[in-house]
Design a protein that fits this description.
2 domains; two-stranded antiparallel ribbon; about 75% helix
């Protein structure tokens, strides 16, 4: 009877507990490749997990009434912490449980990469005459780097071996360095309209490349990650002022069909991992 009365007296906490349980179970199912069927372009598991996480986030932000605000402050803080923990339980682009699942995840990003590169190719025509050559020079290697990364991702999916992974590691680091260099060159453009167009185009490419980098990092050994970081001479800290986190979160949320809040958490974890690795 105590359990039933607690549910009645604390409906918000009880609902949060159910949602946390749903997210936890969905995370375990996803890690073992259990999808429970398709839902749109995703799976039933990811759909249920995303909805539960979104509802949990709403509960965590639900304001208390003036009458009981003093008594519920601590509970609200705890609920917010549990909401964050639940979100961290599922990080699709940095938590692949096997080389094969991560390889498929990488391949799933390649259409977005090709689309972003195609958009970058067409951006030069929108710029002021003095700015177009700077942008063209900055992004000159995007097409070949994109084609190589897509090819290596598909090769790794077909054969997730150490030797193929090493080639994928080299390809993603090389592309990430090109993107970083392009962002620094874009900073030389002073025309505000041109710079906005340039940064939008490069940021779209950067978002996908960084997502793939996080995936590759998740299945790489510590020695391999250290070598990848050593090969990254232009560090992310140098280009951080030119990265648009909000647009990146929107792209990631759209790709995984999840709430933007969850995408932000994924990005924070990926940023922390790459920073700790020395990128």
């Amino acid at each position: 009877m105590n359990s039933i009365s607690n549910i009645w007296l604390h409906p918000k906490t009880s609902a949060a507990g159910v949602l946390i349980g749903v997210v936890t179970i969905a995370s375990v199912l996803a890690q073992h490749g259990i999808t429970l069927g398709a839902a749109g372009s995703g799976s039933v598991v990811t759909l249920v997990s995303g909805l539960a996480s979104a509802l949990l986030g709403l509960l965590a932000r639900d304001p208390a009434s003036s009458a009981d605000s003093a008594n519920s402050t601590g509970a609200t803080v705890k609920l917010g912490a549990w909401a964050l923990i639940a979100l961290l339980l599922q990080i699709p682009f940095v938590s692949g449980c096997s080389g094969t699942s991560v390889a498929q995840n990488i391949v799933n990003w390649t259409p977005a990469l090709q689309s972003a590169v195609a958009t970058a190719d067409s951006t030069a025509a929108l710029l002021a005459p003095a700015d177009a050559p700077i942008f063209a020079a900055a992004t000159a290697g995007f097409d070949s780097a994109s084609n190589l990364l897509v090819a290596q991702a598909k090769a790794y999916l077909a054969n997730p071996s150490a030797s193929v992974l090493a080639q994928l590691q080299a390809a993603v680091v090389a592309f990430e360095q090109q993107v970083n260099a392009a962002l620094l060159q874009a900073a030389r453009i002073t025309n505000p309209n041109s710079q906005k167009s340039v940064l939008n185009a490069i940021n779209a490419v950067a978002t996908v490349v960084l997502a793939i980098l996080a995936l590759v990092q998740s299945v790489s050994s510590k020695v391999a990650v250290a070598q990848m970081a050593a090969d990254s001479t232009i560090k992310l800290s140098a280009v951080k002022p030119y990265l648009d986190k909000e647009k990146a979160a929107a792209m990631i949320a759209n790709h995984y069909e999840e709430p933007v809040e969850m995408a932000r958490v994924q990005m924070e974890r990926a940023d922390l991992d790459t920073a700790q690795a020395g990128f």
